[in-house]
Write a structure and sequence with these properties.
The chain has about 300 residues and is of the alpha/beta class. It contains 13 helices and eight strands.
Length: about 300
């Protein structure tokens, strides 16, 4: 990704687990290849949807190496290297960069709460300086509902001023459009992504980069269609209804349940505590609703939007 534009639909890749809950690196690599074949511009590993904080540093190292060894080009891989401990984040980031993945997605530290702008800036500064690679590019990951930390515009501004070559973008999963709009307005050269699939047309029209999406694990082609044609009202309505069905339930178990059924791979239901699979009835109702929406005609979708 050092030469390709940082834009498009990136799947926030789910991490497949064996029955003993070890990371299934072979299937992870195969899943990444499938997602690229099905329309994604890139894949992002070990973020929220990928259960990154539930995986050890060694597991994340092995997973990235397996994906690249399977032939996925480093320029299409956006590793999530954020950790609560700065030395771990530095280690994962340096490892990714050494393999050619020079652009990484990094959430702020997610244990201590009420972190100030000074604390946020100090964390990213320690990461960038600790890695010490002039080619490193960091996409800041703002997801306060999970991390408990807001990466405010002022902190982004300070980081860009201090590290203009290193700060490449922001992924916002807050869904706060005024925040996203402020980033687009204040930092026009920044690659701004949203984690909210339904914001894709609005974001791209406003100059944003695209979407880093958990839903791309199960509807990569539909999201690519929406990205390529943001005036496609039927596609937007369909995506909106599918997102609504998933978000009625715990999101990661819901996505894994869908993958288990739609990709006919039951082991997708495996996940590490504290996450647990959906109850059988909840999964059945989700899968039925999902299939019904996918099979409706575009005219019917648009009429019901």
């Amino acid at each position: 990704m050092t030469t390709d534009p940082l834009q498009g639909i990136y799947a926030a890749v789910m991490t497949p687990m064996q029955d003993d809950l070890s990371c299934d690196t072979t299937r992870l690599a195969a899943h990444c290849r499938s997602l690229l074949d099905e329309g994604c511009h890139g894949v992002s590993l070990f973020g929220t949807t990928g259960e990154g904080p539930a995986l050890s540093v060694n597991e994340r190292v092995a997973g990235l190496e397996a994906v690249l060894a399977a032939g996925v080009p480093p320029r299409h891989v956006l590793p999530g290297t954020g950790c609560a401990a700065i030395p771990d984040a530095v280690h994962l980031t340096r490892h990714a960069a050494s393999l050619g993945c020079k652009t990484v997605l990094v959430m702020p530290p997610f244990f201590f709460k009420d972190v100030s702008d000074d604390g946020v800036v100090a964390f990213y500064a320690a990461l960038i300086e600790g890695v010490g690679d002039p080619a490193l590019r960091v996409v800041i990951y703002n997801f306060p509902a999970v991390t408990g930390v807001w990466v405010r515009e002022r902190a982004v501004e300070r980081l860009i001023a201090a590290y203009p070559q290193a700060i490449a973008g922001v992924k916002d999963s807050s869904g706060d459009w005024p925040y996203v709009a402020a980033l687009l307005r204040q930092f026009p050269s920044l690659a701004v992504f949203s984690g909210w699939e339904t914001l894709v047309p609005k974001l791209v029209a406003a100059g944003g980069a695209g979407n880093i999406s958990g839903m791309a694990n199960v509807i990569p082609g539909l999201l690519r269609q929406l990205y390529d044609n943001r005036s496609d009202a039927a596609a937007l309505a369909r995506v909106g209804r599918l997102v609504e069905e998933v978000t009625k339930r715990p999101i990661i178990p819901a996505l894994k349940a869908l993958a288990a059924t739609l990709r006919d791979q039951p082991s997708w239901r495996n996940m590490r505590a504290p996450l647990v699979p959906l109850p059988a009835e909840s999964e059945r109702s989700l899968v039925m609703a999902f299939k019904r929406i996918l099979n409706e005609t575009d005219a019917g979708i648009a009429a019901g939007a």
